[in-house]
C-alpha cells in the first residue's frame, strides 16, 4: 500500500472559501500549500504558506510549490461592482488578472505534469453570477471565462486521468460581503433564507478531489441555495 501523502495547492487560503478548502483538506490528511498575498490564517504541521501576489502572473511559474500536486484549487478572488456608465477599467483588469490569468498560469504549470502522471484535479472557484447580473458585469465576465477555460482544458486532459471543474457558489458568508470596496450592490440572500457557508462550498470541492468524482469533468457545479431556481 502506498504511503504517499496527497499534496494540494490552494490559492486564497488565508480567508473565506480558500481557507475553508484548506482546512477541509488538512482534516482529510492532505499536505496543503496555501498561496495568498495576506498572512496565513492556519498553523498546521501539514500546511505550508506561500506568500505571493497572484495578480503578478509572471511569477507563478517560479513559486516554491510541489512539482506534481494531486490537486490545485484556485479560490483567490475579489469583487468590484459598478453599473454600466460607472465602470472602472482598472477594476476589471485587476479581476481579470487574478481570476483568469492566474488560473491560466496555474493550469499551464500543473496540468501537463498531472497528465503525464495520469492523475490530478483542478478546481476553479467561479460564481453563480457568471450567467450575468446587473451591476456586476466585469466580475461576471471573469467568472464566465473560467467556465470556458475549464471545459477547454478538461477536453485536453480527459483521457489522461485528470479532471477540471468549476464550483460556482451563490452569495457566501465571507469577508468579501463586508468589503466596502466591492461597491454599492448588496449580496442577494438565496431562497433558503441565508448565505452559503464556506464549509459547504469546501465540501463540494473536496468531493471533486475524491476518487468518487473521477468521471466528473468539464462541469460547472452551482451551489446557490436555490438562487438559480425559476421564480
Features:
231 residues, alpha/beta, 32% helix, 7 strands, 4 helices
Task: Explain how this protein is built.
With about 230 residues, this protein is an alpha/beta fold. The protein is built from 4 helices and 7 strands. The chain has helices spanning about 15-25, 90-115, 135-155, 200-210, and strands spanning about 5-10, 30-35, 45-50, 70-75, 120-125, 160-170, 220-225. Strands 3-2-1-4-5-6-7 form a 7-stranded parallel beta sheet, with helices on both faces. Helix 1 packs across helix 4 (about 200-210) and helix 2 (about 90-115) runs parallel beside helix 3 (about 135-155). The radius of gyration is 17 Å and the shape is globular. The N and C termini lie far apart (about 50 Å). The mean pLDDT is about 95.
Question: How are the SSEs placed, and which strands pair?
Answer:
Layout: E1 7-11, H1 16-27, E2 31-36, E3 47-51, E4 71-74, H2 89-117, E5 120-125, H3 137-157, E6 162-169, H4 198-209, E7 220-223
Parallel strand pairs: 1-2, 1-4, 2-3, 4-5, 5-6, 6-7
Helix pairs in contact: 1-4, 2-3
Q: Taking strands numbered 1, 2, ... along the chain, how are they ordered across the largest sheet? A: 3-2-1-4-5-6-7
Number of helical regions: 4
**What's the story with the biggest beta sheet?**
7 strands, parallel
Low-confidence stretches: none
Mean pLDDT across every amino acid position:
93
Radius of gyration equals 17 Å
From N to C, what is the helix and strand string? EHEEEHEHEHE
Structural class: alpha/beta
- How far apart are the termini? 52 Å
Strand fraction equals 15-25%
**What characteristic shape results from the CA principal axes?**
globular
SS elements, strand count: 7
Helix fraction? 25-40%
